[in-house]
Amino acid sequence: MQWLRYSAGLAVVTGVSTALAFTRGPSPAWAPEAAIGSWRLVSAKANGKLSDFPAGTTILKHVTPTDFIFVYYNTQGLITVAGGGKYSLEGTHYEEAVQYGIGEGMAPLIGTTQVFTLRIEGGRWYQTGKETDGTLIEEVWERVRPMGARH
Predict the structure, then answer these.
(1) I want to staple 116 with a disulfide (CB 3.0 to 4.6 A). Which of 18, 87, 129, 134 is the partner?
(2) Where exactly are the structural domains of the chain?
(3) Which of residues 151 and 55 earns the better pLDDT score?
(4) pLDDT at 46
(5) In Å, what is the CA distance from 90 to each residue of 10, 70, 71?
(6) Is the pTM of this model over 0.85?
(7) Candidates 1.10.10.10, 3.40.640.10, 2.40.128.20, 1.10.760.10; correct CATH number of 2-17+35-143?
(8) Strand 93-102 and strand 79-90: pairing?
């Protein structure tokens, strides 16, 4: 479950510009700026098995031009796990350097760099890779739309 705690974070960063257009359909030449924004984890697999999240848990990733942060929060609005740091993105090569965190499973991740393949298509972020503990992950994140935005 370590991958779930970390990978949920791989995907959450706040305070991002809403001026970015939402991706519509495949775009083979998408710009790295397309990753900037807020994302909600909609599915995840670890070593090919669908992951269960604790009931009522929402997992968000926020990506700014320089940093990422992820949070898990429950139905009471309490954050149970969070982490973040710097990231780099070149083409489809995405790396997250975990610099800080809190909550169960975060201590071993601090100071590690997780390497992934990233594809953004149709308002979704597809992330795959092998974490430093050897867990193969596949995640799908959905862009969080600003309040009042049309679907």
Answers:
(1) 129
(2) 2-17+35-143
(3) 55
(4) 95
(5) 16, 21, 24
(6) no
(7) 2.40.128.20
(8) antiparallel
